[in-house]
Design brief:
Shape: globular
CATH architecture of the largest domain: 2-Layer Sandwich
CATH topology of the largest domain: Chloramphenicol Acetyltransferase
Strand content: 15-25%
CATH class of the largest domain: Alpha Beta
Largest sheet: 6 strands, mixed
Distance between the termini: 81 Å
Strand order of the largest sheet: 5-6-7-2-13-12
Amino acid sequence: MADSHCERLSALDQSFLELESHNAHMHVASISLYEAGPLATPGGGIAIDRIRAVFEHALTLVPRYRQKLVWSPVFHHPLWIDDRHFNLNYHLRHTHLPKPGDERQLKRLAGRLFSQALDRGKPLWETTVVEGVEGNRFAVISKMHHCMLDGASGSELSGTTMRPTPELDPELEKPVPKWVPRPTPSPSKLFFGELAHRAQAPLVAFGALRRAATHPWQTTNALLDVTGGLREALITGMRPASPTPLNIDIGPHRRFDYLDTDLGMVKHVKAALGGTINDVVLAVLSGALRRFLRQRGLGVEKLDFRAMIPVNVRVRGDTSLGNQVAMLVARLPLDEREPCERLARVITETRALKGSHQADAIRVIEEIGDWTSPALLAQSTRVAARTRPFNIVVTNVPGPPMRLYMAGAAMLGAYPAVPLYQNQALGVALFSYAGHLCWGFHADWDAVPDLHNVVEAVAGELTTLAEIAAAPLQPH
């Protein structure tokens, strides 16, 4: 008989479970659009069996797909165990848009699916294959709980179903080995395992002290950097951002919209006007939100409007799942009228953040939570969310520069959705792919009925910056 098996969630992973509420579901999601190509059937559908075969093989590479949550006795800490009742047909779903199958219908379907919480009694993911998208296309709408992954690991996870060429993977022709779930540890084993984990905290502290004694100057400097970063993070978190129409208690329903822009255009703006791709994105979004909030009748001249920006702190080469991010908060210059000056202010803000060591400080807090009481981090995160330290979440996940294929069908674009917090009605996520920058706009149904205005404003602001970047220099 196989040995029992479980995997412990980190304190940060657990915090995404604790943050979830009836109206605020903590799943990351996306719409991916594909050419029907070789998957088209004579009746106008999609060869779902071939897509199912891709997922069956992916399951052998990523065990997390077939794991569910269980909680340790007394400590009530979540762990991953194999789900002996796993059924791929529950998680991989198949539907068809009504005619005409336009993108408005697809976005409405995505909003409805994003409104629904994942079942915690099963592996925390669902994928819906959508036939009948106009233009001889189909879509894949995916949801995975944030406690499973961050943006970087999510990209790795999705990559198990994709190939860089349209040729079919020869492995798909081979039978999938029968999966045998590993037994769940007994309650007593779960309890003593958690107890043993927490008992190691003094040893971890001792190791840190020993390193400090060996390299006192390096350790002292690092400690000063982290302490300074922690002070800045706490000051930011204790001071609420300005109230806006985007920061109200959200309801249970969602809207989703997306935008496809030329990555080359963004790179040209960066080269001509300075900064990074992320800086250009934040400047464009600042201008778009300035337009949007002014349309709502809100004065923006004195707004302290902040974006929470997840930063990947994963070590190069680390392909493990789970979350390895630090959450930084940047002030967006919605009060600035001039596009170039907005970009310059964003560059100044992000450079200061990079030099502040806030990411290091937040990473230390997460590690302390892992070795002491993970619930403290979760509770602190919940309290911080209620105090409105930021107005919006903006995340940008780098993707592959080449086109990818699933079962021979070319992926045209992938548009991500970031979870909404309880008092945050709009989130923006981006994914770079094959020369495109794909924007996903996730919003509360009631608070942002005019989501299309945000999308149009983003497109307009990027065009404006691109025109400025392309204009010849004027002599002084």
